[in-house]
Write a structure and sequence with these properties.
Length: 411
């Protein structure tokens, strides 16, 4: 494996003195972990009923998944309506399929929730555009519906943003939360969420922290009190100096604010990052839960560190608080533990790790799951339908360390 050695992928943090970080650079750990391709597609294929009127509206070249959730028997994939031609915004495939297979995606929970795909938008009872969803401890799926159609074309606000909670045992809606206008902005785009069941209870008593990517900020929902409020801070905004992305020689521009989220139950800390930045930040969960900040209140936000380049997804192992991330330019997956300051490069692949839109930690098998999407090709309309463009990948973190002592880290 060939690496271009650069400076460290996390620079000075308030959590660690500069000297400690300098010493850590003398003996970083390089891992060589296998990329297990569970599923892959040239273009996504949906199992659309012939009598449902969606066949002619479906454009596979505009369908790219951004959200991943794994249960014991199913894998949920969200396909936001970035462009026209998306048939279903929330889909599902079986959890256990042959390695490298390309299963057809099924609409979840049924095609009746995806009527916008055939041009019917006279009702907001279904799902408009889902970027991500999360399972709670009560076997329920919290689906964050942004309510925006064609977000990368003309940004049509079709329906109010909402949370829709499904009972995974019955696939029935058990709760719907429509967000009030006061916590939103005209260009709000709710694109990620964290479910916090550590503070005041599980299920309907959970807190939900959501990233507003286009009108940068965070929306907090208190499930027990059925109320929501908004948090804003300059660190949640995109940095124009990092709005250009180069992946496998292709360049594009995207000014996205806060989108990557991870939560440490042990430290009671929320980590976040805009897409257009090289920085990672944190805020105590207690600061989010206490209610809307006063006008002059200073939020306790910390600069955790700097990465080699921009990144989208974040994942966290709650056992030891290791954070996993994927710098887009370096087509790799790296790990950093803010408690021990241990740094690792765990995977690198110029082909298979192009634009990791989502990273998920799965405790059941001690592995990082990710969605690799080649988003730059969707964005620039340079897709080759003969190539594999979308993958679900699993990286087990349990194999033995291979080797690697250098005087600089890869990032």
């Amino acid at each position: 494996m060939l690496f271009v050695l650069k400076s460290c992928f996390f620079q000075e943090s308030k959590m660690w003195p500069l000297l400690a970080l300098f010493l850590a650079l003398l003996s970083p750990t390089v891992l060589s972990l296998e990329l297990e391709v569970l599923n892959e597609w040239n273009l996504l294929d949906l199992n659309i009923p012939y009598d449902y009127g969606l066949i002619n509206n479906f454009r596979p070249e505009t369908n790219v998944f951004t959200g991943l959730e794994i249960t014991n028997d199913r894998i949920f994939l969200s396909i936001p309506r970035l462009w026209s031609g998306v048939a279903a915004t929330l889909t599902v495939i079986p959890r256990h399929t042959p390695p490298g297979s390309s299963p057809r995606l099924e609409a979840y929970p049924s095609w009746d929730f995806h009527k916008l795909g055939k041009g019917q938008n006279d009702s907001c009872d279904g799902l408009t555009s889902v970027y991500r969803m999360r399972q709670d401890s009560c076997n329920r799926l919290w689906v964050l519906d942004a309510g925006v159609n064609l977000s990368l074309e003309d940004f049509q606000r079709i329906c109010p943003p909402k949370l829709v909670v499904f009972d995974l045992a019955t696939d029935q809606v058990v709760r719907t939360v429509v967000f009030p206008r006061q916590v939103l902005r005209p260009n709000s785009l709710l694109a990620n969420l964290i479910i916090d069941e550590t503070a005041q209870g599980t299920c309907d008593s959970a807190f939900v922290y959501m990233a507003d990517t286009a009108a940068p900020g965070m929306v907090v929902y208190d499930g027990a009190r059925d109320t929501a409020w908004r948090i804003m801070h300059p660190t949640m905004f995109p940095d124009p100096d990092f709005s250009d992305y180069t992946i496998a020689g292709e360049r594009f521009t995207l000014m996205d604010g806060v989108v990557g989220l991870a939560f440490s139950p042990k430290l009671s800390t929320v980590y976040f990052q805009p897409l257009a930045t090289d920085r990672l930040f944190s805020i105590p969960a207690s600061a989010l839960r206490k209610g809307p900040p006063s006008q002059d209140e200073e939020l306790p936000i910390t600069l955790v560190g700097k990465k080699a380049s921009q990144g989208l997804g974040l994942a966290l192992d709650p056992k030891d608080d290791t954070i996993y991330f994927s710098p887009v330019r370096e087509t790799s997956v790296a790990a950093w533990n803010p408690v021990t300051n241990q740094q690792k490069l765990i995977a690198y692949d110029q082909d298979k790790l192009q634009f990791a839109a989502e990273l998920r930690w799965r405790e059941q098998d001690n592995s990082v799951w990710l969605l690799s999407t080649r988003f730059q090709k969707f964005f620039r309309r340079t897709l080759n339908p003969q190539d594999v463009n979308l993958r679900i990948i699993r990286i087990s973190t349990t194999p033995s360390l291979q080797t690697g002592l250098t005087n600089n880290l890869y990032f």
